[in-house]
Amino acid sequence: MNSLNYHQKRILNCSVTDPNKILPIKYKWAREHYKKGVANNWVPDEVAMQQDIELWKSKDKLSDDERRMILYNLGFFSTAESLTANNIVLSIYHHITNPESRQYLLRQAYEEAVHTETFIYCCDSLGLDPDEIYTMYQNIPSIKKKDDFVIEITKSIFDPNFKTDTKENIQKFVYDLVGFYVIMEGIFFYAGFAMMLSLLRQNKMVGIGEQFQYILRDETVHLAFGSDLINTIVEENPEIWTKEFQEDISKLIKQAVELEYEYTLDALPRGILGLRPDIIYEYLKYIADRRLERIGLSKFYSSSNPFPWMSEIIDMKKEKNFFETRVTEYQTGGLRW
Fold it and tell me: Domains (ranges, CATH) in the chain?
């Protein structure tokens, strides 16, 4: 590819891009996110579940509210990961013809498959009823509302005749990206992360908690890629970034915060482990401001972060955590001297 074509490379609607030629790379952020994904590689089978199984089968070591919280989060995440994967494979990959971005999307699709496998592994290990877990997105109103909200935002681009060839359609495509990257992965997952990782901090359900930690780390990269993708599309198509369009996106993110809070009240009605719905609500508002600013919009809430330990969990090295988890298991397992 000559230098003229290199400078003419665009994320969307680029006649000079050959999707089979990844070099030379123009969008270095896509390459960096790909390498971070590879460095984060993990699979659920490497996480021991024996402590979780014993705790789940116990009569009095988990409260009814803790069990409810665990089931709600397994129910939401088990199908939300598939919903995200289908969108990547069936929609985003089709319309993003830039090769280095496609390389990352392939990596993300694999990670979504790993996340889906995680919930199969968790359900099988705990002996849960799959009909109950995998129909919660239909039977639990607060979960259904979240899924329906994202599906409504993105339904137009699943039209087989959809093309990103007009200002209106590029806006619809950006809506899709906001729906899945900013809202689904950047807001709708985070009450669940806070709940399950709070259990991990209490040394409860450590196997599931460790897997949620790894998923959170993956989602952090997904969110960064999606935000860079949105920002690049806007930079290359500035005519779409109207004041009205920006207000519409801000409104969507605010609605997402309220839906996630409604889900929090449902999954955690009374509060446990020092974790209350009102505190999670503050956290949701805090991360919503960060999501808004990441795509060039003004923050709305100005809330502080009530869970600074969430950032520490994201930054913790996998090898260190994996080793420490094993040490904990040896110390509290069945060995007696």
Answer: 46-331 (1.10.620.20)
